[in-house]
Automatic annotation (TrEMBL):
<keyword id="KW-0808">Transferase</keyword>
<keyword id="KW-0663">Pyridoxal phosphate</keyword>
<keyword id="KW-0032">Aminotransferase</keyword>
<dbReference type="InterPro" id="IPR015421">
    <property type="entry name" value="PyrdxlP-dep_Trfase_major"/>
</dbReference>
<protein>
    <submittedName>
        <fullName>Aspartate aminotransferase family protein</fullName>
    </submittedName>
</protein>
<dbReference type="InterPro" id="IPR015422">
    <property type="entry name" value="PyrdxlP-dep_Trfase_small"/>
</dbReference>
<dbReference type="GO" id="GO:0008483">
    <property type="term" value="F:transaminase activity"/>
</dbReference>
<dbReference type="InterPro" id="IPR005814">
    <property type="entry name" value="Aminotrans_3"/>
</dbReference>
<comment type="similarity">
    <text>Belongs to the class-III pyridoxal-phosphate-dependent aminotransferase family.</text>
</comment>
<dbReference type="InterPro" id="IPR015424">
    <property type="entry name" value="PyrdxlP-dep_Trfase"/>
</dbReference>
<dbReference type="InterPro" id="IPR049704">
    <property type="entry name" value="Aminotrans_3_PPA_site"/>
</dbReference>
<dbReference type="Pfam" id="PF00202">
    <property type="entry name" value="Aminotran_3"/>
</dbReference>
Length: 437
């Protein structure tokens, strides 16, 4: 093969998946991955946030080993296994009162959101759903049907209406973004979308794949008021930014709202496939009609999830996300002062985004430079992905265990990568091997 990595392994090139880097990993520990060439890579992506405790965490290893060696627990016959029952109890204690009914387990954020989309329509008898432009709720047909990310065009449900997510950077100020987004919603209710026909509003408390957008203060509170007024269920998709990542346990807590349904995924299993929907009984009782997935709620993944939640509490990882996230964000602000490619730094806790632009006045997206920066950072030893409806936002979702030193180490590599991209020192032909999106 051409390019920098002469050792691209067969296993990587045979993968029919989105992959950013032409390299297999052979292991990992904490915030570091080990490449098959022995290189240590600092992981600021943590598999889109799924590796919430980092790699090879002892608490997950022990819990999984125990669940595997316990034959009764590992029978996979139903979700009434002990780890699942304990996990359901735990999750119920972590959501607002109004969502405290029953729990459904799935394998991914996608199947969880798909289940919600189907349940809310059946349970309420209302045919419509609201979601945000740019929202990524999953990659199955049913979850794509309620998503607004460009990657999911073509699979949208007939009853879906997309509304703009308030974008403070694009609008010029948080208030301008909030006012425009709320005015859009109110106009919609007064015209095309009768609110009494809307079953649910799917929200991302921080819009992650759409560009790591942080909602302006007061926006979701106003959305909640509208939803309550019209009997619309509020569904908080916490898949990427929940479970402590934002510096609060639930990311919706920043907006002081109480969703009716909460969706967990990614970091819940710490890398193992498990997701959960928590909501009122009247809604969740419909899940059974859609829940025929043989090994969902299996005890191995549930045990991993319990270990994740216990470790988040025991090691104060929500507080660590807040503290280390602050250090990381401050370091990124300092980078912004020196790199004109950086248009905006935003996020909460350890869910951060850096928007790259070719011009700070016009805010033209610097998508090519974003891909090059991600690639160059990888060459230097930093794993970072990009997101955004215009593919120009560097995304930071490192393990919740990240230390301040690791935050600084990663930013130093990013600093170098940005300088190399700006100076044209990165071989553009490498992008041909780069299977991003
Ligand atoms: N919801 C959100 C907010 C996400 O970011 C994602 C994945 N990027 C999903 C749902 C889908 O989760 P999964 O990939 O586990 O199906």
């Amino acid at each position: 093969m051409s390019g920098l990595y002469a050792r691209e392994s067969r296993s990587v090139s045979t993968m029919a998946h989105l992959r950013f880097f032409p390299q297999a990993v052979v292991g990992g520990s904490g915030a570091y991955l080990t490449g098959d060439d022995g290189r240590q890579l600092l992981d600021f992506a943590a598999s889109w946030g799924a590796a919430s405790l980092g790699h090879s965490h002892p608490a997950i290893r022990e819990a999984v080993n125990r669940a595997l060696s316990d034959q009764a627990g590992a029978s996979y016959l139903s979700t009434a296994n002990e780890p699942c029952v304990l996990l359901a109890e735990k999750l119920l204690s972590l959501v607002p009162e109004r969502a405290r009914g029953r729990v459904w387990f799935g394998h991914s954020g996608s199947d969880a959101n798909e289940t919600v989309a189907r349940m809310v329509v059946v349970a309420t008898g209302r045919p419509r759903i609201l979601a945000f432009s740019g929202a990524y709720h999953g990659g199955t047909v049913g979850s794509m049907a309620v998503s607004g990310h460009p990657a999911q065009q073509g699979a949208r449900a007939e009853g879906l209406t997309l509304v703009p997510y308030p974008n403070s950077y694009a609008a010029g100020s948080p208030d301008a973004a909030k006012d425009a987004a709320l005015a859009h919603l109110e106009k919609l209710f007064a015209t095309e979308v009768p609110p009494q026909e809307v079953a649910a509003f799917f929200i991302e408390p921080i819009q992650s794949d759409g560009g790591m957008l942080v909602p302006p203060d007061g926006y979701f509170k106003a959305v909640e008021t509208l939803c309550r007024k019209h009997g619309i269920l509020l569904v908080s998709d916490e898949v990427k930014v929940g479970l402590g990542r934002s510096g609060r346990f639930n990311a919706f807590e920043h907006s002081d709202i109480e969703p009716d349904i909460v969706v967990f995924g990614k970091g819940l299993g710490g890398g193992l496939p498990i997701s959960a929907v928590v909501g009122p009984e009247a809604i969740m009782n419909h899940a059974v009609a859609f829940s025929l997935q043989t090994v969902h709620g299996n005890p191995v993944c549930a045990a991993a999830a319990l270990a994740v939640l216990q470790t988040i509490e025991r090691d104060h990882l929500v507080q660590n996300a807040e503290r280390t996230g602050h250090v990381l964000r401050e370091a990124l602000y300092r980078l912004a002062a020196r790199h004109s490619l950086i248009g905006n730094v935003r996020g909460r806790g350890l869910a951060l985004g850096v928007e790259l632009v070719t011009d700070r006045v016009s805010r033209e997206p610097a998508a090519r430079q974003t891909a090059l920066t991600v690639y160059r950072a990888f060459q230097l030893g930093l794993v970072l992905y990009y997101v955004g409806v215009r593919s120009n936002v560097l995304e930071f979702t490192p393990p919740l265990t990240l230390t301040e030193n690791q935050a600084q180490e990663g930013v130093a590599m990013l600093d170098q990568a940005l300088a190399d991209v700006a100076a044209g020192r990165v071989d553009e032909s490498l992008l041909a091997e780069f299977a991003g999106w």
